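pls design
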């Protein structure tokens, strides 16, 4: 992943970034205000890049509050799996067996307790289109192009690529996008609810950072629980587990929760009578 800067106004916001490289495929920039930018160096996802993305998602880094996922340059956000790496059992690099690692990546983005914003310029098609859909928000440039290519190349995404799309644009439109494999402009994508907003290309970074700043002003715990709650209906028992885990995390920090733990450690009966039974 490589961070690629665009407009001069936006570049001023990036100058204090601390940059870390993870080989030729990954370069992340972190800013003092809890903002992390991760940018795809290639428009095609290889198995190696998917593994790097999985490792790079900062679940345990308390200094990061919002993640921006984007592509290098302005021609493509991501155009999906590299068909030259495709084998009979998934996508494989030269010394690896085939796997559909992108499915694990999609789950990790959904379960990450921090917002992930897709900043899209150029093509977001195929697996790249699914990648932006599993992100929490999508900010698109006017030159962005969206669509699915699977049936053209003998492939499909019967998981999030179908279910989340149907949630976003409705069942009929989702069928149209998959069955006809058409491409759609940023304006068309906004009208069907596929993206949050569309801005001129030169304003893309500036607008995305503006959205991040607004999110970072709010309660991180509230954002965490809301993300889990909004995902729970689509993620089944796994979604409920994530939501329930967040509720437990909050309860552990309360006086009532600590009364039970302290009573156990002090070898005494817990006194929960002092806590109200709220209506």
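designed seq:
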């Amino acid at each position: 992943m490589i961070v690629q800067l665009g407009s001069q106004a936006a570049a001023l916001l990036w100058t204090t970034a601390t940059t870390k490289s993870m080989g030729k495929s990954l370069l992340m920039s972190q800013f003092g205000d809890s903002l992390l930018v991760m940018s795809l160096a290639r428009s095609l996802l290889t198995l190696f890049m998917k593994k790097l993305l999985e490792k790079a998602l900062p679940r345990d880094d308390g200094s990061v509050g919002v993640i921006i996922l984007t592509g290098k340059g302005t021609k493509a956000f991501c155009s999906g799996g590299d068909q030259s790496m495709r084998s009979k059992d998934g996508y494989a690099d030269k010394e690896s067996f085939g796997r559909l690692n992108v499915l694990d990546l999609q789950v990790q983005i959904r379960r990450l307790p921090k917002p992930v914003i897709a900043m899209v310029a150029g093509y977001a098609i195929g697996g790249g289109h699914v990648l932006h859909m599993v992100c929490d928000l999508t900010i698109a440039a006017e030159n962005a192009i969206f669509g699915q290519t699977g049936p053209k190349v003998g492939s499909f995404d019967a998981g999030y690529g179908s279910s989340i799309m149907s949630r976003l644009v409705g069942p009929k439109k989702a069928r149209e996008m998959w069955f006809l494999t058409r491409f759609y402009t940023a304006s068309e994508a906004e009208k069907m609810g596929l993206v949050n907003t569309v801005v001129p290309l030169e304003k893309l970074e500036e607008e995305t950072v503006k959205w991040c700043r607004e999110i970072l002003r709010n309660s991180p715990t509230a954002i965490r629980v809301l993300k889990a709650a909004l995902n729970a209906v689509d993620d089944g028992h796994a979604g409920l587990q994530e939501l329930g885990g967040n509720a437990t995390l909050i309860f552990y920090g309360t006086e009532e929760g600590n009364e039970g733990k302290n009573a156990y450690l002090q070898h005494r009966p817990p006194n929960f009578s002092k806590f109200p039974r709220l209506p």
